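Hi there, hope your week has been kind to you so far. It would help a lot if you went through both lines with me. No rush at all, and the record is pasted right below:

***
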Amino acid sequence: MANILICDDERDIVSALKIYLEAEGYTTHAAYTGRQALEVLEREDIHLVLMDVMMPEMDGITAMAVLRQRYNLPVILLTAKSEDTDKVLGLNVGADDYVTKPFNPVELLARVRSQLRRYMSLGGRAAASEHCLTAGGLVLDDRRKQVTVDGEPVSLTPLEYDILKLCMENPGTVMSPKEIYRRVWQEDPLGSEGVVAVHIRHLREKIEINPAEPRYIQVVWGQGYKLETGGESG
């Protein structure tokens, strides 16, 4: 089983996380500042880090920036709802995911399993081949017509597949429902573009850990949809 480092200056949170993770069979190590986390990483074989953002001595963002210079292992940030800027900054300096406090233990464990599966699977962090499109843990292999999320295959309908492929081919580009309909269905919508939202909802249910807080296909209100390559929810 994997070794997980929990770093948070709130000891009650560390204790609770230890209970959840050890009940799943993981081995845990504790740290209460960013500096302590780096010290643990130097002496222990850690496979995943849960890192709080706001901590004394060295905050989580700074610690993670240092960590990324030395280690290639998944980091999940523990953030408060008010720390949206820190979430973005954390993802930009190398965080793989984040969980918002107060966290749901089921969701947190799902994210831990997802990141560990991706990290430990063969080729999980390898560069995509020329026929593959990637966005975080999302991989679309167009030669095999297969989609995986963190190494796990997902079954999509042909329309869902085509919508996802279109979004992944245009990362960060906002596309209106009319444009998506025109390019996927290859005909003018003539008032039928509302069906796009239905297919995207079904697509999210298959590729997102929490479809209510999608990390890949984002809504840009009043404009359309776009694919986030860094897994930032919104």
